[in-house]
Amino acid sequence: MKNILVTGGAGFIGGNFIHYLMKNRQDCRIVCLDALTYAGNLETLAPVLGDSRLRFVHGDITDREAVYRLFEEEHFDAVVNFAAESHVDRSIDTPEIFLKTNILGTQVLLDACNKFGTGRYHQVSTDEVYGDLPLDRPELFFTEETPLHTSSPYSASKASADLLVMAYHRTYGTPVTISRCSNNYGPYHFPEKLIPLMILNALEERPLPVYGDGKNVRDWLYVEDHCHAIALILEKGRVGEVYNIGGHNERQNIEVVRTILKALGKSEDLIAFVKDRPGHDRRYAIDPAKIHRELGWLPQTGFDEGIQKTIDWYLNNRSWWEHVRSGDYQKYYQKMYGNR
Ligand code: NAD
Ligand code: DAU
Does residue 336 register a pLDDT over 90? Predict the structure, then answer.
């Protein structure tokens, strides 16, 4: 049985990844290490917390002593690092924690892999490390060869971590892989991000704050497709390689917002154009040719199907998001949108 460390598994994608492995890979035991920041939520893992194949450890990836203790005890076959500060708007407000968690936390995990050994260290990265593409060149896509060119403290911290991962591979021979994924959506998505925020505001008939002119483009990937891709990279990916994950589900933000309003039967009068995000990336678009060619992966869920499944999930899981939005979330919302 494989023993896998999943960091950040109480967050959106890490949580979905744990659900995915528990359902689709019977030969796995999983240890989830998560600091339970504002974005971490044990209710996301509630359906599987009682399963003997899952151990939850409350801890911080930047805490070297605690991380080393865990590695010594567990002898992991693989490590998948999802733990991060992940929201661009927050990184503009408070960059420091992004550098600490996303860069130094990655370094601690890499050091632990070298000290105690592991079959694979997988870094969950982002297409934001490539910067953005112009809106008037739809033929351009990010490939694994696209130069790193970051825009926000968040993307700079993720790019730094990627460089460190590759440097550890070259210098110490650490058996690493990296995946760079486009925007995810689906169940358990924290409602500071575009899609869940718009779904919940629409449900409650509150204004839907669209940054700038709403023409920025994102390449949306249903989260289960991302989880499948990471599982394939762990099993069949080549050590020392980067794999882009995403694929041809590009939408302007305003189109996404209109789709949500239509699906919920709400008026477009709820749309409120607000001040743009500083440094706002215009377009992300992934070319997934490499992961398709080498590992046979392609996304299975188109945007129309995925957005409907996501809306249904929020309609059917009210208690999850009501708990998430209690407390500090209200203060965050007021700070970000109060005077925008
Ligand atoms: P998230 O913010 O929903 O979850 C992050 C998780 O990490 C939370 O459970 C949080 O408690 C935990 N965490 C934060 N700091 C920690 C620390 N110091 N030690 C241990 N745990 C800590 O993030 P997400 O959207 O699930 O993103 C997961 C990863 O995927 C991130 O690395 C992000 O950069 C990357 N990514 C996200 C997307 C996306 O669309 N959401 C796309 C591409 C890549
Ligand atoms: O591309 C991958 C990245 O996708 C991940 O690395 C990040 O962790 C993840 O947060 C996401 O980054 P974005 O900045 O693209 O996601 P966000 O949901 O914050 O915004 C999506 C788009 O919607 C972006 O163009 C900004 C816009 N937006 C966002 C919010 C929260 C709005 O117009 N209004 C909003 O209120």
Answer: no
CA-proximal residue: ligand 1, atom 42 (nearest) = 183
E strand segments, 11-152: 28-34, 54-58, 78-81, 120-126
- What gap in Å lies between CA 282 and CA 293, rounded to an integer? 28
Report the DSSP pairing between strands 250-252 and 217-219: antiparallel
Please tell me the total number of residues recorded for the chain in this structure. 340
Average pLDDT, the chain: 96
Q: Is the pLDDT of residue 335 over 90?
A: no
Half-sphere exposure of 106 toward its Cβ, with a 13 Å CA cutoff?
28
Minimal-distance CA residue to ligand 2 atom 30: 194
**Chain centre to alpha carbon of residue 191:** 13
The preferred substitution site among 183, 250, 254 for testing ligand 2, maximizing ligand atoms within 8 Å of CB, is 183
State the DSSP string of 267-313.
-GGGEEEEPPPTT---B--B--HHHHHHH-------HHHHHHHHHHH
The residues, any chain, with a CB within 8 Å of residue 197's CB and separated by 6 or more, are: 191
Please tell me whether the overall predicted TM-score, pTM, comes out greater than 0.85 for this model.
Answer: yes
From residue 125, give the alpha-carbon distance in Å to each of 13, 148, 326, 329. 12, 12, 29, 25
Query: Could you tell me the distance, in angstroms and rounded to a whole number, from the CA of residue 32 to the centre of ligand 2?
Result: 26
- Tell me the per-residue pLDDT of 2-22, one tens digit each, with 9 for 90 and over: 999 999 999 999 999 999 999
Q: pLDDT, tens digit, for every residue of 240-266?
A: 999 999 988 999 999 999 999 999 999
Q: Which two tokens stand for residue 283?
A: 């377009």
Q: How far is the CA of 137 from the centre of ligand 1 (A)?
A: 31
